[in-house]
Design a protein that fits this description.
heterodimer; A: mainly beta; 11 strands; 0% helix; globular; B: 4-stranded antiparallel sheet
Chain lengths: 113, 113
């Protein structure tokens, strides 16, 4: 099974930098994803890490340490539109070739002026 | 190219009624998933399919059935709806083994009274 933990809520100021952490325990790790979900909308893909290190994509970066079961999503130059929930998800090889995608409960980020 | 389409978008059911939620994808994806999202619980996997004619149980399968008779469609059925099944339901699809992100439909908001 999987256990994925991330903070429930965070608040940050417009223009600042915020780091959202995610820790996980899984038996067959095969990649970690970050999704963004605005209220009332579907999740949309942000980033993917399968190897250790930092992946940068514009204002968003994601880091993975497989040995520590740890990832973070870094958002730079925060904008009001970044107010959303950020979902950490782990892809797990359950042994049946299904590659299930299991989500954490999400971190609700509020960006304030 | 519509991506992942869910119907209906909203529905109110009385306890004991049945209904089917339809998920259709036009991306020729092999893997399809049904999740439910409840406040404070995150996205939880109900059932999934790794190809036409195959289905498997996820984390919270009780009270739901699924079918994948055609590759592009994944149906979620509630035979006898209960108030505990009030939720937002999301369908997602992925190319298959070795790919990256999952694409989500816009969700179905179901209320059981």
């Amino acid at each position: 099974g999987q256990n994925i933990d991330q903070p429930t809520e965070m608040t940050a100021t417009e223009g600042a930098i915020v780091q959202i952490n995610c820790t996980y325990q899984t038996s067959g790790f095969n990649g970690l994803f970050w999704y963004q979900q605005h209220a009332g909308e579907a999740p949309t893909f942000l980033s993917y890490n399968v190897l250790d290190g930092l992946e940068e994509k514009g204002r968003f970066s994601s880091f993975l340490s497989r040995s520590k079961g740890y990832s973070y999503l870094l958002l730079k130059e925060l904008q009001m539109k970044d107010s959303a929930s950020y979902l950490c998800a782990v892809r797990d090889d359950s042994g049946a070739g299904s590659y299930q995608l299991t989500f954490g409960k999400g971190t609700k980020l509020s960006v304030i002026p | 190219n519509a991506g992942v389409t869910q119907t209906p978008k909203f529905r109110v059911l009385k306890t004991g009624q049945s209904m089917t939620l339809l998920c259709a994808q036009d991306m020729n994806h092999e893997y399809m998933y049904w999740y439910r999202q409840d406040p404070g619980m995150g996205l939880r996997l109900i059932h999934y399919s790794v190809g036409e004619g195959t289905t498997a149980k996820g984390e919270v399968p009780d009270g739901y059935n699924v079918s994948r008779l055609k590759k592009q469609n994944f149906l979620l059925g509630l035979e006898s709806a209960a108030p505990s099944q009030t939720s937002v339901y999301f369908c997602a699809s992925r190319v298959g083994v070795g790919d990256t992100e999952a694409f989500f439909g816009q969700g179905t908001r179901l209320t059981v009274v």
